[in-house]
Amino acid sequence: MLVKDLSKMGSARVSVEVLDGVDCVLKQGASDVEIHFYQIAAQHLKGVNSPALVKLDGHNLFIEHIPNRISLQELRAQPDLFAQLASLHRSEYIPSFPVKQHQWTDEATNEALKILNLPDSVESSIKQVQSLSSCIFECKNLISGDTNDGNWGTRDNRELVLFDWERFGHGSPAIDLAPLVTGLGTISDYKVIIGQYTQHNASLSETELLRHLIIAKCWIIIEVVNILVSRNNPEKEKYIDWYRTQIPRWLDSVKNWL
């Protein structure tokens, strides 16, 4: 029986179901990437907590229900957050299946800019950031690709779990750090995140990671705007108006760090 629809930005329909008397999460129309993650990859990623696979029926994916939702503030306070992400990013596991190919295309930028309707100078600045973006996609680190607080929760024993893996792929660790910064953030916010993360993984210098994080934040703007519109999110206008207000000031504050 359907209990509650949990889907937000994702394309799959997500609900809590009862299977053999136990609550689990059903993702209807789960992607091949996420199915293969749970079938194959999860067991190889030591130090990273993900839900257990309960059942697979075609593209209907049943996974362990992580009962306790968590806010961004609570997530940032979790003692093993950055240790888990660093374990993922340092993993030497090589997926045997096609993973999500992250990229920042001209088409995506143009579509988002039509929606945002920003001043020409701001559009030019975004395109300049895009021209620098190959560095965050050329990194060979494994990444979640979607670490926003809505994709985390805790088990009843307080273990922190990341439960959305449809964007599992390769890229800079900054792609997974960017959603952990509230809003668009400031350089000071980024440095705090980087300082916490590099205690567990110093494979990239703090200077390089800061640059990557700014680029990743800008790319996420483009991704989110296009997803909001393509999926007709009911709150799209609220978010788009917020971006229109915030982006010019934010770009001006970070441009000297690129």
Automatic annotation (TrEMBL):
InterPro entries: Kinase-like_dom_sf. SUPFAM superfamilies: Protein kinase-like (PK-like). It comes from the Bacteria. This is Choline kinase.
